[in-house]
Design brief:
Elements (H helix, E strand, L loop, with lengths): L2 H5 L3 H4 L4 H10 L7 E5 L5 H6 L5 E6 L2 H10 L7 E5 L5 H5 L4 E6 L10 H14 E12 L1 H6 L4 E6 L3 E10 L4 E10 L5 E8 L4 H10 L2 E7 L13 E8 L1
Parallel strand pairs: 1-2, 1-4, 2-3, 4-5
Antiparallel strand pairs: 5-11, 6-7, 7-8, 8-9, 10-11
Length: 244
């Protein structure tokens, strides 16, 4: 069982819906009521569902079928403007074709699961293709300049009534990747689920170049979903940009 399959049943307890994400998306998209949105790495569909009454159409994609099954169950019959689909983020160009969407969202540190800069370049090429001219792309990853420059080994523990989720980093300088190690405690049963997955710690400078090289402009970097200017010690790195 892979990393996300093992925690799928508890994902909404670890990462509950964040209303600030929805507000950020709606503030960024002009004429939202007539817009089509692609939600990449949609997980259990919380963001897509929270936006469904504001947008014309939403396509949520993920490569984890456990997540997609949960998203489908959460989606009521009234949500006729959402579809949850199995799709690799590197194949969105093949799946949807040119100018298919007015906006693209990729939150939850999804981007850095790609193995290297070449794969990320392919993703942004595809993203540029499926977005119409002036379409918005919104991204969220961990602020890896902070992780690398300050040698951060641990992210804040997520501790609720139901779960305790510990997150640790170990840097591999030879591969230029990070081992993300997690431990999820299910408090009711006492079960503990431990995992490790490699991530590519994408720096702000690298990300900016990828965006510029693939026809994105008006690039803004924020330290939270309230559009606070990014600072050195911010944990998230949030991006808003436009397809030129």
């Amino acid at each position: 069982m892979d990393f996300y399959q093992s925690i799928a049943s508890y994902y909404d307890d670890i990462f509950p819906e964040n209303p600030l994400q929805s507000s950020f998306v709606l503030q960024s998209i002009e004429d939202a009521g007539n817009s089509r949105l692609l939600d990449i790495g949609c997980a259990t569909g919380s963001l897509s569902l929270s936006l469904s009454s504001h947008l014309q159409y939403i396509e949520g994609i993920d490569i984890d079928r456990e997540f997609l099954g949960i998203a489908a169950k959460k989606s009521s019959k009234k949500c006729t403007n959402i579809r949850f689909t199995y799709c690799d983020m590197l194949k969105i160009g093949q799946q949807f074709g040119a100018n298919s969407f007015d906006a693209l969202v990729c939150f939850g540190n999804t981007l850095v699961h790609l193995p290297d800069m070449n794969a990320m370049d392919r993703f942004f090429k595809n993203a540029s293709e499926v977005l119409r001219k002036d379409g918005k792309m919104l991204l969220q990853i961990i602020h890896y300049d902070r992780i690398l420059d300050q040698d951060i080994r641990q992210l804040p523990t997520i501790d609720t009534e139901k779960i305790c989720f510990e997150r640790n980093y170990a840097t591999n300088k030879s591969t230029k990747r990070i081992a993300f190690k997690s431990s999820l405690l299910i408090k009711k049963s006492g079960e503990r689920i431990q995992n490790s997955i490699e991530l590519y710690p994408l720096r702000k400078k690298e990300l900016h170049k990828l965006l510029k090289d693939n026809h994105f402009g008006d690039i803004q970097f924020y330290g939270n979903f309230n559009k606070k200017e990014l600072e050195t010690n911010d944990q998230p790195l949030i991006i808003e940009c436009r397809r030129l």
